[in-house]
Specification:
The strands form 3 sheets. Strands 5-10-12-13-14-11 form a 6-stranded mixed sheet. Helix content is 28%, strand content 29%. By secondary structure, it is α/β, with parallel strands linked by helices. The chain has 11 helices and 15 strands. The radius of gyration is 25 Å and the shape is globular. Helix 3 links the parallel strand 3 and strand 4.
C-alpha cells in the first residue's frame, strides 16, 4: 500500500481546507508515492517518537500537532524540530499531520472528547462561516437523476444529518445551436425548447472544483449552464468546539473528579464552585479559551478545554464552571481517531498508537 492512499483517507475525513489560517496541517516530510511499511500514531513528533518508528520498522508517522509551523532558512539541528527533520529524512520516514482540520471536522477531536465524557445531542460550538456555496444548474428532465446523483457523490446536498438534499423545479429552457456545435437535442440553426429541471443544491466551498468536474462529466449538454452562489449561512457541521448534554446531571465535584480520572489529569484547574448542577457541557481540545464567550452564550454549565489564561478566570463564577485539564491531556485520544479512520478502510495495514507520552509539561 502506498502512503498516499492513507493520506487520501485522512483528508477525506478531515479535508485540509478546514484548517485555520495559522496552521500548517498536511504533509510535513517525505514522498507519498513510497510503499507504507506501517504507521505510528502520535500527538506530537519528537526525536523519541521517530526512534520508536525506526525500531518498529515503520516509515510513516501520523501526528496531530504539525512538526513544522514556521519557515526555515537552514536546517542544522539547532533545535528538536530541525533534528527531527534531519532524522526523518535520513531514515526515509514520512511525517503527516492533521491538526485544526481534524479539530474542525465532523467526528474529529472534539467529538472524541465528547465521546469520552458521554455527551449526547452534539452541536458545533462555533460553526464555520462563509464556507458554503449553492449550485444551480438546468438539466433535461430525463437526465436529472443522473446529474443529481453525480453531484451528491461529489459532495453536494449535505445539510445536518440529511444527505441528497436538493430543490427541483420543472420549466422550459430555450437555445439555438450555431454552426460547428453538436447539440444534445434540437437542430442547428433552429430555436429549440426543452423541458428542463432547475436543480439547486448546497456544497462546501472547497469542493467547488470537484463538483464542477462531476457536473460537466455527466451533464448531457455540450455547454451546460450553471451558477455558483456564495452563502453566508453558518456551516453547522464544521467548526470549533462542541456543546452537548449528559444523560444525567452531576454535581460539580462529581463531574470534575470524573473528568480528572477519564483524562488522567494530574492537576485539574477550575474556577470557584457555586453548587450548580452539570448537564450541558461545552468543550474544546487544546488551547480553546477563545471559545469561552460562545460556551457561555450556549447556556452550558461547564466549559472544558486544555489551556486557560489566568485573567480569563476572573468574573465568570456566576456564568459557567471553567475546567482546564491540560493541552496534552485534552487531545491525547486523537490517536484513536487516526486508528479508526485507517483501520476501517485498511484492516490489514500495520498500525500502532505510540507508547510515548510527549507531554512537555511535568507536575511536581
Amino acid at each position: 500500500m502506498k502512503i498516499k492512499e492513507i493520506v487520501s483517507a485522512l483528508e477525506r475525513f478531515a479535508p485540509l481546507p478546514l484548517q485555520d489560517g495559522f496552521d500548517n496541517a498536511g504533509l510535513q516530510i517525505g514522498l507519498t508515492d513510497a510503499e507504507a511499511t506501517g504507521a505510528l500514531l502520535c500527538l506530537d513528533v519528537t526525536e523519541a517518537i521517530l526512534d520508536e518508528a525506526i525500531a518498529l520498522g515503520y516509515n510513516l508517522v501520523i501526528s496531530h500537532h504539525p512538526l513544522i509551523f514556521k519557515g526555515y532558512k537552514s536546517i542544522t539541528g539547532k533545535d528538536y524540530v530541525e533534528r527531527c527533520m534531519l532524522k526523518a529524512i535520513k531514515n526515509d520516514i514520512m511525517i503527516y499531520s492533521a491538526h485544526t482540520n481534524l479539530d474542525n471536522a465532523q467526528g474529529g477531536v472534539n467529538y472524541k472528547i465528547a465521546e469520552k465524557i458521554g455527551l449526547k445531542h452534539l452541536k458545533v460550538l462555533e460553526p464555520k462561516e462563509n464556507s458554503l456555496m449553492k449550485l444551480v444548474t438546468f438539466v433535461p428532465i430525463a437526465q436529472a437523476d443522473i446529474v443529481r446523483n453525480a453531484l451528491f457523490a461529489a459532495g453536494c446536498g449535505n445539510i445536518g444529518n440529511y444527505d441528497s438534499c436538493s430543490y427541483n423545479l420543472e420549466g422550459e429552457g430555450t437555445f439555438r445551436a450555431k454552426e460547428g456545435t453538436h447539440p444534445f437535442c434540437g437542430v442547428i440553426g433552429e430555436l429549440h425548447r426543452e423541458g428542463e429541471v432547475r436543480i439547486e443544491t448546497i456544497l462546501p466551498a472547497f469542493k467547488k472544483s470537484e463538483v464542477v468536474r462531476a457536473l460537466l462529466s455527466v451533464h448531457p449538454y455540450e455547454e451546460p449552464a450553471f451558477d455558483l452562489y456564495p452563502l453566508q449561512n453558518e456551516w453547522a457541521q464544521a467548526g470549533s468546539g462542541i456543546v452537548g448534554e449528559l444523560e444525567e446531571p452531576e454535581t460539580e465535584m462529581e463531574f470534575l473528579k470524573r473528568i480528572k480520572k477519564t483524562f488522567e489529569v494530574e492537576c485539574l484547574r477550575h474556577n470557584k464552585l457555586t453548587g450548580r448542577e452539570i448537564q450541558t457541557v461545552a468543550l474544546c481540545g487544546g488551547a480553546g479559551a477563545f471559545l469561552l464567550p460562545q460556551a457561555i452564550r450556549s447556556g452550558a454549565d461547564v466549559f472544558i478545554t486544555g489551556e486557560i489564561k489566568y485573567h480569563d478566570y476572573f468574573g465568570h463564577e456566576g456564568d459557567i464552571l471553567m475546567a482546564e485539564i491540560g493541552h496534552y491531556e485534552s487531545e491525547q485520544y486523537t490517536k484513536e481517531i487516526f486508528y479508526s479512520i485507517i483501520r476501517d478502510l485498511f484492516p490489514n495495514f500495520t498500525l500502532q498508537l505510540s507508547k510515548i507520552n510527549t507531554n512537555p509539561i511535568k507536575y511536581l
